[in-house]
Write a structure and sequence with these properties.
GO molecular function, one term: acyltransferase activity, transferring groups other than amino-acyl groups
Keywords: Acyltransferase, Transferase
Radius of gyration: 18 Å
InterPro entries: Acyl_CoA_acyltransferase, Bact_Acetyltransf, GNAT_dom
Pfam families: Acetyltransf_1 (PF00583)
Distance between the termini: 72 Å
Strand order of the largest sheet: 1-2-3-4-5-7-6
Bound molecules: coenzyme A
Helix content: 10-25%
Strand content: 15-25%
Number of strands: 7
Shape: globular
Number of helices: 4
Largest sheet: 7 strands, mixed
Protein name: GCN5-related N-acetyltransferase
Structural class: alpha+beta
Order of helices and strands: EHHEEEHEHEE
CATH architecture: 3-Layer(aba) Sandwich
Length: 186
């Protein structure tokens, strides 16, 4: 009998697709896991269902590996939010693939800037984002979720932006309503 050299196992395939109703429990639990550790804002199940078309799901070997959402704030900016990777598959490119899916969706929609509120500055920098000065450079529409955030007073999250090369400003973009910065946010 001929000896066959042992082959290393092939890496499980990573795929990203739009979320479906059947993903909501896994999305809720993964976000809840990290929210309980203070890494992100908790997201009620109702909120996930209502915003399900924003969400992408990553799978590794056909199993749920993480989620991320692109939420349109205005014609010139969309927020990457609800980004959560299952702890067992961290640091395998899942988060980056989810951000790439959000970016592709923003490009498809003709939205030239991505925004994120985050504590994971290093990760977003690896995805091409840069830190901004919260006291000066925030778009007037980025406060949409602050009112339901437990850290609303004395917020210490970082604001990060990514300008999407090659995506022009939409034509005829209306002025956004004036900033309504919630008290205590700075
Ligand atoms: C942050 C998070 C989304 C990153 O996802 P991930 O799948 O573990 O990260 P990736 O493997 O895609 O990493 C992509 C790159 O970012 C780097 N990176 C990942 N997490 C990092 C961190 N916390 N600090 C610095 N760099 C980080 C990786 O080393 C990799 O670098 P490379 O370009 O040299 O390869 C994930 O760890 C997570 O869900 N964390 C908890 C929840 C959270 O913080 N969500 C973000 C809220 S907005």
């Amino acid at each position: 009998m001929t000896a066959v050299a042992a082959q290393p196992p092939a890496p499980a395939a990573l795929t990203v697709r739009p979320a479906r109703a059947e993903d909501v429990t896994a999305i809720f639990e993964t976000i809840g896991y990290w929210a309980a550790q203070g890494k992100m804002l908790v997201r009620p199940m109702q909120n996930i269902f209502e915003n399900l078309r924003d969400f992408f799901v990553a799978e590794v070997g056909g199993e749920f590996a993480g989620c991320g959402a692109l939420h349109i704030l205005w014609g010139d900016i969309a927020e990457v939010r609800g980004l959560a990777v299952r702890p067992e598959v961290q640091a395998k490119g899942v988060g980056r693939a989810l951000v790439a899916a959000c970016e592709a969706e923003a490009r498809r929609l003709g939205i030239p800037v991505l925004f994120a509120w985050t504590y994971s500055v290093g990760f977003f920098e690896r995805c091409g984002f840069h830190l901004i000065d919260k006291s000066k450079e925030l778009h007037p529409r980025v406060w949409s979720e602050c009112l339901r955030c437990p850290f609303f007073v004395g917020c210490n999250e970082n604001g990060m932006l990514k300008h999407l090369e090659g995506v022009p400003m939409p034509r005829n973009l209306p002025e956004p309503p004036p900033t309504q910065v919630p008290p205590g946010i700075r």
